[in-house]
Automatic annotation (TrEMBL):
Keyword Lipid metabolism: no
Organism: Rhodanobacter aciditrophus
Pfam families found in the cross-reference section: FliJ
Keywords: Bacterial flagellum biogenesis, Bacterial flagellum protein export, Cell membrane, Cell projection, Chemotaxis, Cilium, Flagellum, Membrane, Protein transport, Transport
N-terminal signal peptide: none
Protein name, per record: Flagellar FliJ protein
Broad class of where this protein is predominantly found: membrane
Cellular location(s): Cell membrane
Lineage per the UniProt record: Bacteria, Pseudomonadati, Pseudomonadota, Gammaproteobacteria, Lysobacterales
Membrane topology: Peripheral membrane protein
NCBIfam families cross-referenced by the UniProt entry: flagell_FliJ
Length: 145
């Protein structure tokens, strides 16, 4: 088996690993988008609730209950902000893994291409040597005839 063929096997393995990381990257991006959407929904909900409170004339008792509810919504928003940050960190780590996997694949591919180039050069030299030997034999055969 030629060196370039052995290198192609390594390139294929590296590419499969890279493809696995690409799937993780897509999953992490989707998770971040979903977490961000949830955060936006919570913020919209809190904003709507706040606007409604200003429109309603609430008794002190209802105002207190209303404020407790708004506080819980704000806590949920803070928790979701933390979740978005965690999702972003996970995405960043997966992005680095993909960049490393991509660099490895490119490096392996470059080495394979280099092997192919070297093999072609060697084959060309051997072919040229055979042509030269044939031409020499033909020349000497004609000289001796």
């Amino acid at each position: 088996m030629k060196k370039s063929q052995r290198m192609q096997i390594l390139v294929d393995v590296a590419k499969r690993k890279e493809d696995e990381v690409v799937k993780l990257l897509a999953r992490d991006r989707a998770r971040l988008l979903e977490d961000q959407r949830k955060l936006d929904d919570l913020r919209d909900y809190a904003s709507q609730y706040d606007q409604e409170r200003n429109l309603l004339g609430l008794s002190p008792y209802l105002t207190t209950n209303y404020q407790h509810f708004v506080d819980r919504v704000q806590q949920a928003i803070q928790q979701q902000i933390l979740q978005v940050k965690r999702s972003q960190q996970q995405l960043d780590m997966t992005m680095k893994r993909w960049q490393n996997a991509r660099a490895k694949t490119k490096g392996m591919d470059w080495l394979k291409d280099k092997s192919v180039t070297e093999e072609v050069a060697i084959e060309n030299k051997q072919e040229q040597k055979q042509i030269d030997e044939f031409a020499s034999r033909l020349f000497f055969d004609r000289m001796n005839s």
